[in-house]
Amino acid sequence: MENKKTVLVIGAGPAGISAAKSLANDNISVTVLEKEDTFGGNINNWAKLFPNFKDAGEVKSSLIQNFVNNQNIKIVYNKKVTELKKHNQKWIANTSDGEVFESDAAILSTGFKVFDAQYKEELGYGIYPNVITSVEFEKMYKNGKILTVQGSVPKKIAFLNCVGSRDEKVGNHYCSRICCIAAVKQAIEFKELYPQSEAFIFYMDIRMAGQFYEELYRKSQEKHGVVYIRGRISETSSTIDKKVQIKAEDTLAATPLRMTVDMLVLMIGVEASKSTTILSKQNNIDGPYGFAKSKDIHTADNYSNENGLFLAGSCKRPLTLTETIADGKSAAISVVEYLKQTK
Amino acid sequence: MEEFTKKYWKDYQKEIADDNFYYERSCIRQSFFPGSEAAFLKILRDILGKNIIDDPNQHTCTGIGYHSDIVPFDTTMTVVARIFSLMKDHGVNNFIPSCVTSFGIFNEVVETWNHFPEEYEKTKLFLKQATGRDFEIPQNISHASDIIYKYRKELKEKMPYRLVNRNTGKPLRVVEHIGCHYSKLFAKKSEGGMEFPKVLVGMIEEWGGEVIDYPERRHCCGFGFRQYLVMANRGYSVANTKKKFESMQPYKPDFIVANCPGCTMFMDRWQYTIAEMEGKTYDDNKMGIPVLTYEEMAGLLLGFNPWDLGLQLHQVQVEPLLDKIGIPYDPKDKYVGKSGNFLGEPEKPENLVTVYGK
Prior knowledge:
Largest interface: A-B, 12 and 17 residues
Strand order of the largest sheet of chain B: 2-1-3-4
Structural class of chain A: alpha/beta
CATH superfamily of the largest domain in chain A: FAD/NAD(P)-binding domain
CATH class of the largest domain in chain A: Alpha Beta
CATH topology of the largest domain in chain B: Rossmann fold
Order of helices and strands of chain A: EHEEEHEEEEEEEHEHEHEEEEEEHEH
Distance between the termini of chain A: 13 Å
Number of strands of chain A: 20
Number of strands of chain B: 8
Shape of chain A: elongated
CATH architecture of the largest domain in chain A: 3-Layer(bba) Sandwich
Strand order of the largest sheet of chain A: 5-2-1-9-20
Number of domains of chain B: 2
Oligomer: heterodimer
Strand content of chain A: 25-35%
Number of domains of chain A: 2
Number of helices of chain B: 16
Strand content of chain B: 5-15%
CATH topology of the largest domain in chain A: FAD/NAD(P)-binding domain
Shape of chain B: globular
């Protein structure tokens, strides 16, 4: 009887889960190495998902069906892969605690990390407590309340897009793709919680490229009265009552603007995770901005230039959750193709 | 929060030389704040025991002319090269500009030379042809406030006074203002970065004071070169300064400290202008908020005579602040010159109170 083929999946986020399940369905033995003590990756940071406000927990539950108790999938938690190398046609993963895993192929599904907003010093994150990130907003929303650090309901809230994206100063020229629609979603959520409060979104361009995004953008204005201001915030400071003073330029009105809000939400962008960058570099598949580089973005997007090493999800570039799940499956198909050739 | 802030300041900490300095004086400070540079030299020589050259042959850096589009950059580079050649004559290689504009100029020129070696070669040629002199790029360029910041702990040990209200025992509430060209041209050449520089905060906190974080803390002081230098634009200048005062007023600052000649000057003098134009002052006793240079602040705490520091030449009078700290002074000596002769009292404004206790 022929030995089962083995695949290492590095990262148990949506892409890794999706890939592992598809491979397991093909009777391939999969070992998933996850650096955290749970699966799900960045999906754990979301309460509801755009564009349909579906509960992120439900999506996760659906995603992990046939993942956790799958006899072809072994999930190993708290395993941070520090080295991934090919040796004698096998992929060898070394972990930070000295364990070694071996397989016939490997999938990098190490995902993304969010931009550290402290690098945009002028926005006051880490200095002024009522300046928060979109991830922190999401956590608050999950708990049912959006409150200032003083414990009050914000009468005025502002969201700032492109924090760490499309920004030469921080070295990220690319668009993170999910922040515009996430701001629309969060502004609506805020207005639904507190209809009497005001919500403003500061933006450079509103990029509503996904299905139903544009409709949601319109709805946010027509139904919820969210106000959009084209201009970036140049500076924040604290007022004597701990509100956040914003300075910006309204580039449509061609005038500088000063506004005081109770809370400022920074829509932080997507960056390559540390593991993505390190493991890509080790295998000479590192692309721009620390993301992993696929063999061909059109025809072989799940392949890397290293035979047997595959890419899934946002380790390649910023992707939506929908795209990430689909990309995990796509990576699995590519792995199966490869394993068939290497019989 | 504090932990984050500390981490970032650490990232931005720069190297500051510790001895053998060449001091580049400011064009305007000796008129506006005549005791400040003398105090700096005294602190470095007599208190810290440093070797610092105060060269009578030094000259302008061209900063104000350059930023007013009067002096072309080639000229600025050559003039700066000549100053560096004077430093070379003295055998030291750590450069300290007194002025923040100059600090920006020297850094801009050196960065230009580092990025465009052909400009460096051209400047060497220009200087040689014009003066027959050679120069070397300084090993270290630190602003004078960086030096005081570096030695703030050592100085504290020598200070008989603290930035504490002697009547209440509470820290004095201080507005700090950093000159734009200290950190906004080259963030990494500053102590603490572009947005939240630490250079004055470090001194204030070390010496017992409390820094006020008011909304317009980072707003322009009102100088801005062309805002002021072009007479038609002066309304912009005073409007900017007014915006800062209105923003800081609710916090009831005891005084303001700045590290730039222009900022110190405008935040001091425009209080007079606003008071005379609108009858408005930003303190409780209509005397205005005192504005100090960091050398004056250090000098006062070190026990220097306030009148030797030139504080009587400020527009906003400082006696209420001296009393809060508990610094002794003799009112009779206020307008006595170095010769010992009475110099006469300045004309009194209509609205801004300049005589303490009246």
